[in-house]
């Protein structure tokens, strides 16, 4: 008598149907290795746990809104000889999330700030933390849109409670009222409760310039962000190098040539 149909029904009822994916292989393994029933059962349970962990990780990655697979393994440390790799790898342990402090990343355009921030986010997601990646512009737009449709408080609380919020391109566009107030309220709500990673093209001494109209509010916001924060400076040339022009185009330009439509 084939027990699989009845077993399939029972596993589905227990929400363990994923076991069927490896049941046949594990059964052959148990026969070949003469495993005890308890060892066979242990293998099946371990398979189910691994499947569930993988599904949870996939869900966290989707919610995080990362821009591609920006991992620490793919980060080009060789381009940044002054960067302390030991500090970065220590941050990748995500101890700063347990400490509930910020990580502030500054440097010129194209030095890998967004990549590094997302790499820390990937590490956090793999360790079971919920993460959300957004640019400053997107963050403030999300809050404005929520205000317009009457869901501001719900959206605000979701942003306030996520264990790791990554805000990219801080200060790229100066904040004016009420954006600066929303940003301050969010950082104040997250202060000493959750962790925030910020990236910026501005030097740390220039971060106050992100608050165009209310410098006092900006000082209060940055005071919370800086408290016990880890600072990382990426100092190097941009990796966004344009492709060289074809030789024929170079020659034409060198001779002052005009295009056909001129």
Index terms:
262 residues; disordered C terminus; 2 domains; elongated; 11 helices; five-stranded parallel beta sheet; alpha/beta
CATH architectural group of the largest domain? 3-Layer(aba) Sandwich
Strand content: 5-15%
The run of helices and strands is HHHHHEHEHHEHEHEH
* Terminus-to-terminus distance: 85 Å
The top-level CATH class of the largest domain is Alpha Beta
- SS-based structural class? alpha/beta
Tell me the major beta sheet.
Answer: 5 strands, parallel
Radius of gyration, CA atoms, in whole angstroms: 25 Å
CATH-level-4 superfamily name of the largest domain: P-loop containing nucleotide triphosphate hydrolases
How many strands in all? 5
What's the helix and strand layout?
Elements: H1 4-13, H2 20-33, H3 37-64, H4 85-91, H5 95-99, E1 103-106, H6 113-126, E2 131-135, H7 136-148, H8 152-161, E3 164-168, H9 179-190, E4 195-200, H10 215-226, E5 230-233, H11 247-254
Parallel strand pairs: 1-4, 1-5, 2-3, 3-4
Helix pairs in contact: 2-3, 3-6, 7-8, 8-9, 9-10
Written description of the protein model:
The chain has 262 residues and is an alpha/beta fold. The chain contains eleven helices and five strands. It has helices at 4-13, 20-33, 37-64, 85-91, 95-99, 113-126, 136-148, 152-161, 179-190, 215-226, 247-254; strands at residues 103-106, 131-135, 164-168, 195-200, 230-233. The protein has a five-stranded parallel beta sheet. Helix 8 packs across helix 9. This is IS21-like element helper ATPase IstB.
In short:
The chain is of the alpha/beta class and 262 residues long. Helix content is 51%, strand content 9%. The protein has helices at residues 4-13, 20-33, 37-64, 85-91, 95-99, 113-126, 136-148, 152-161, 179-190, 215-226, 247-254, and strands at residues 103-106, 131-135, 164-168, 195-200, 230-233.
């Amino acid at each position: 008598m084939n027990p699989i149909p009845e077993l399939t029904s029972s596993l589905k009822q227990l929400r363990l149907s994923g076991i069927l994916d490896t049941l046949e292989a594990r059964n052959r393994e148990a026969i070949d290795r003469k495993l005890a029933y308890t060892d066979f059962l242990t293998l099946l349970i371990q398979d189910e746990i691994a499947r569930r962990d993988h599904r949870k990780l996939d869900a966290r990655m989707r919610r995080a809104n990362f821009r591609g697979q920006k991992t620490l393994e793919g980060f080009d440390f060789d381009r940044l000889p002054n960067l302390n790799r030991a500090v970065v790898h220590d941050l990748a342990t995500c101890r700063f999330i347990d400490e509930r402090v910020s990580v502030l990343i500054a440097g010129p355009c194209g030095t890998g700030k967004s990549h590094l921030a997302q790499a820390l986010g990937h590490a956090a997601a793999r360790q079971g933390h919920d993460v959300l990646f957004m640019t400053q512009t997107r963050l403030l737009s999300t809050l404005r849109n929520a205000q317009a449709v009457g869901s501001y408080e719900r959206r605000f609380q979701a942003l306030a409670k996520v264990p790791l919020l990554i805000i990219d391109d801080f200060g790229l566009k100066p904040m004016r009222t009420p954006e600066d107030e929303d940003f301050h309220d969010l950082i104040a709500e997250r202060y000493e409760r959750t962790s925030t990673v910020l990236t910026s093209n501005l030097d740390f001494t220039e971060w106050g310039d992100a608050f165009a109209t209310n410098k006092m509010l900006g000082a209060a916001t940055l005071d919370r962000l800086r408290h016990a924060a880890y600072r990382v400076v990426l100092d190097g040339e941009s990796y966004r190098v344009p492709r060289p022009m074809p030789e024929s185009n170079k020659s034409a330009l060198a001779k002052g040539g005009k295009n056909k439509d001129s």
